[in-house]
Fold this protein.
Amino acid sequence: MSISDLATISTCAPQDLQKKNIKAQTKDLTKELDELQNKLYAESKWSLLVILQGMDASGKDGAVKQVFSSVNPQGIKVKSFKAPTAEELDHDFLWRVHKHTPPKGNIQIFNRSHYEDVLVTRVLGLTDDDTAQRRFQVINGFERLLKERGTQILKFYLHLSEEKQQEKFKDRLNDPRKFWKFNPNDLKSAKDWPLYRKYYQEVFEKCSPEIPWTIVPADQNWYKEYLIAKKIVETLRGLNMKYPGLNES
């Protein structure tokens, strides 16, 4: 899918899709993912890095929970990148990221990622555009290095509408089980929507074009989860993995 302009890409599922059918397909995909992850772990030849980016309330946590619900936790890790610590700020911006990349045989999920350092840092005025341009090149080299070492990289942008985001923010205020998710700063970030979209657009265009982004319409969880699961399963299928034979030595 061309990412010439996010504003031209729908945040919703096609109208002709039936939710029940898509959820059934997602269930089948997650079962297959379990088997593929077993092969990945056993063969220990490849690794998979799944990067999830998106505006607040785009459903990154929910996607992780649903898509990977059947996977053996022994071979998967999730890392959420929040504001850097004082120690992390004393190093280069990729220092805290590189140590969480997946070893062979494993799946690593980044819930937010190194891309925050060319997105939110600019929105907040912590870095300037010249710094971001240099970081684009560093990110490209970093991802190429991982790819050369056998890491398959999948980058998903969860494409949420402003209307749906506001609906989810209100839901957090009305549901006691979700109070912990509410952050007053979320309301401010919503006001910065045009700036975030501008910087995301630049990321899509300049960061590792050989490792393209997948834009995932995120207004409906069932469709978002299906697209993510489908892409991951197709990628792992393409590795033609096999269980190792008996070791007779």
The radius of gyration is 19 Å. Strands lie at 47-54, 76-80, 107-111, 151-159, 213-217. The first strand starts at residue 47 and ends at 54. Residues 19-43 form the longest helix (25 residues).
